[in-house]
Specification:
This protein is of the alpha/beta class. It has a domain of 77 residues: Dna Ligase, domain 1 (2-Layer Sandwich). It is 34% helix and 32% strand. It is built from twelve helices and 21 strands. The chain has a six-stranded mixed beta sheet with strand order 11-6-1-2-3-19, with helices on both faces. Strand 12 and strand 13 form a beta hairpin. Helix 1 packs across helix 3, helix 6 crosses helix 7 and helix 6 runs antiparallel to helix 8. The chain is globular, with a radius of gyration of 23 Å.
Length: 407
Amino acid sequence: MPKNGYIVGLDIGTKKVAAIIGEITEDKKIETIGIGTSESRGLRKGVVVNLDATVNAIKKAQEEAELMAGVEIESAFIGISGAHIKSFNSRGVIAVSGRNREITHEDIKRVVAQSKAVSIPPDREIIHVIPQEFVVDEQDGIKDPLGMSGIKLEVNVHIVTSALTSVQNLRTCIERAGIEIEDVFLNQIAAATSTLTPDEQELGVGLIDIGGGTTEVAIFERGSLWYTSIVPLGGDNFTNDIAVGLRTPIPEAEKIKKKFGCVASPLVDEEETIEVPAVGRGRKPRVLSRQILADIIQPRAEEIFRLIDNDIKRMGYEKSLNSGVVLTGGTAMLDGLEEVAEEIFDLPIRRGDPSGVGGLVDRVNTPDYATTVGLILYGFNKLEEKGITKDRKKGLWIKVKNWLKEA
């Protein structure tokens, strides 16, 4: 439990580390009071490849957020992503144990536990078991069966697993930075918490979070998570394409991408030009048409979206996207990305700006903070579910009795 009364989200990505400190108000709203970011050099495609570099990046973001908020970060909710994440759906079935066949908390725990009694390789661990729906005596679509009468109880769940060593290395880095881990959440779940509306999740919606090293996908329907996947391509691939295509250093290619990048050629003015630094000493920068830049990176955007579209159709979820698709992540800020996605998916597309928090809204209201803001929101929801609240006098988090849930 957060010991100092503040809730912290820590997103450790391939391109950057972001930390946000939130304070819970008396009316149970979150006010962001501190934000810290740093360049991430120790990860590749979401996996730690350099412990010291990752620890330093975490500390830098941590110190910046602490300085802004005027408080110390003791613990945080952590986001996890990367190509090592794998997920699948499972089903559990039990007989209701009570004398009067009334479903209790114990029955719900047993059926969820039975659903994850599947064969998992020894080098992997389960990080999420997310109930999708319960079925009582063949009646499906039940969100909460507590108190209902029945003979047989079933549950459909979405199970998310990760490589054991990848998670352990990430935990090691966070602990070396002096931060206690509250819990670890999948990035797609966190980003969805801050960007998707309840109506979208009920009708069916896709979330595409385009990070630096990977692109993460999630599909929600009937208010539940049904599908997640990882595409091993992201913003770094756009940057590399620019560096090769324009023959410019990678750091300069990154700057050009952020300032002038557009993935839809028709949106670019033919007369518009950009200055491109050359590789090597003594070579003068060149002035090129911005149209050339768009022609270089548009195929990469199309490739990523086509891979996702093909995967969704292969798994049979193309009819689940009734509300369209929401784009998040730093790369989602590229001009023209929504137009290209709309052409590939033939669905409504919007950019996912996070909401649900107050305070420094102007600083965090962009797609690249969707996961970090979502970590705070999702973490607070979990605290409330566990019956944890804030003691306003002491500024501490304490566990309170929840008679309904403990009955």
